[in-house]
From TrEMBL:
Source superkingdom: Eukaryota
Reactions this protein catalyses: ATP-independent breakage of single-stranded DNA, followed by passage and rejoining
Biased segments, Basic residues type: 1-16, 24-72
Protein name stated in the entry: DNA topoisomerase I
Annotated GO MF terms: DNA binding; DNA topoisomerase type I (single strand cut, ATP-independent) activity
GO biological process: chromosome segregation; DNA replication; DNA topological change
Gene source species: Noctiluca scintillans
Lineage, uppermost ranks: Eukaryota, Sar, Alveolata, Dinophyceae, Noctilucales
Cross-referenced SUPFAM superfamilies: DNA breaking-rejoining enzymes, Eukaryotic DNA topoisomerase I, N-terminal DNA-binding fragment
Amino acid sequence: KDKKEKKEKKDKKLKKDGKDKKDKKDKKEKKEKKDKKDKKDKKEKKNKKNKKLVVKKGNLKRVKGMMKKKVAQQKAQQKPSKVIAKTEDDYEPVNRWWEQEDGAAAGKRGAKKWDTFEHHGLMFSEDYVPHGIRMKYAGEEVRLTPAQEEVANFWTSVKGSEYEKKEVFIKNFWAAFTAKFPEDTHIKDFNKCDFNDIWEHREQERQARLNRTKEEKDEASKKEKEGSYLFSHALINGVRERIGNFKLEPPQLFRGRGEHPKQGMLKKRTFSEAITINIGPDACVPRVLGLPGHAWKDVVHENTVTWIANFEDSITLDSKYVLFAANSGIKGQPDLLKYDRARRLVSTIGKIRESYTKLQTSQHLVDRQKATATYFIDRLALRVGGEKDTEEEADTVGCCSLRCEHLTLEPPDTISFDFLGKDSIRYQNTVVVTEQVFHNIDMFMKDKKPEENVFDKVTPTVLNDYFKDFMDDLSAKVFRTYNASYTLQKELLKFPMDKMHHYSQDDLVKYYNDANREVAVLCNHQKAVSKNHAESMDKMNAVKAKMEKDCKTLRRHLSSLNDPRNEKLKVKGEEAAKLPSNAASCKKKISEAKMRLEKHVKQMELKEDNKTVSLGTSKMNYMDPRITVAWCKKVDLSIERVFPRTVRSKFPWAMHFPSSYVFE
């Protein structure tokens, strides 16, 4: 029995050992097989990566596209996912003030604008940090104090511009610069000064800023936003609104508009002691951040105005205001009222024209002048004008301040205008007027010297009082808004709706821009030709020539595909590899190339036509935006094509008007 049990135990053990050996062997074989497979896969992957692409003729473009797509995908996988940080702006509801019962009532002059109003004050410009670079005088280096160095820096900022050669600018700069030196200084002659070392240092700093990496620029932008975030908004009636010019201008050399007699003077740094703050009576008065030990000039609680702060300009001595941004509701309300006022003028303009036509033959000289001036304001969209001190500001004129030297009469009914309007923009226009208007102007100019006023009995106040007889809120400014809006609508109504399907989106944009240009010309919205305009047009012409050549090559290739035996038609060389292999693809390519060429030609025409005309001014300030919105909806044109983001954000109240809107 014992022997039998021992034998059974031995057999059992042998059986178990045999099974273990088999399991070990199977595991080993499995592992070897897996290792062999992994090795093979790695080898195949390596060979595939190193394998050169065999590109067939005609497939080069397709393969390049595939490779480009593959590289882009690899970069996208390697690049960490971008984190979008949301701010209060993303969650805050839109202030739809135009849907409220009182609508834009608060936009009226003298009306109560707010019940509660609070903000954090203003952001002051940074202190000047001296760099220690010396200027040269008569060839010798001169060490400058920080105050002197700062003004010298301002001069180098105009190097290469038109101001560098303007006598008035140089004279005023020199007076500001030498005022920083003691009276017994040896620096007496501007022509002996050499600021090139300072300019080169500033240029190096500028290039360093331009050559920053994207990450560095983003970081700087982030810091700037964080620093200004506290001051960028105000709470008005519990609604958060953006402030426009919350950061005070740093000191600089004054440039002014046009030929300003004070250009080149030093515009000083503004301190809190010159600033009056407007805020709600229950709000906490903001501290003067960044200027320890300083305080505001005054704090007021005027709820019939919308300015946040005001101060006196150190050059012009005019009051300057810190206002809300153009896209805020508090600025949108007066805009809506302005265009509604111009719209109401449509029904009243007939009576006004009838009145001033009768007054043109009045026995009273004041009435005659008043009626003739109104004719120019109505028909030519002239600004009303007023008396100016030419020693304090540029000699610009409007209708009431026209001088005899600005007008040339050509019998029997033609008058030529030539004068400097707002911002010293030259106004040149020759118009045919009525016989009575011509006679009146001839009479007003008789026996007068060239520098005397044509309308010597009329002032803007007299004209505006006359306009109040027709509308309580009518002034000379309303006529420009009316004329701009009426002209735009008149031009857009000429669009042939029955042929709309023939117009592409680009054609519609061109049609709108042509109408906009008519308004800009009427309102004399001009701009100087860009310095790079000629160079830009040359580049566009080169692109046009390349496109035309490509179209010609494609047409020739199509002919060779249709007639393969004609060797003369065949395209040879590198170009042949990029061309389609069949006639259908070639026709498609020709069609696409022609569309691109037409689009490019239209862009060139638009750029050339608008080189001296500013279309944006009338969009932002004079043309009723509802006319544009209605027309775009009518012709199925995307509003983004004619209204950039800044314009759309300024007029959110206009975006919901239907295509049936009419300016009347």
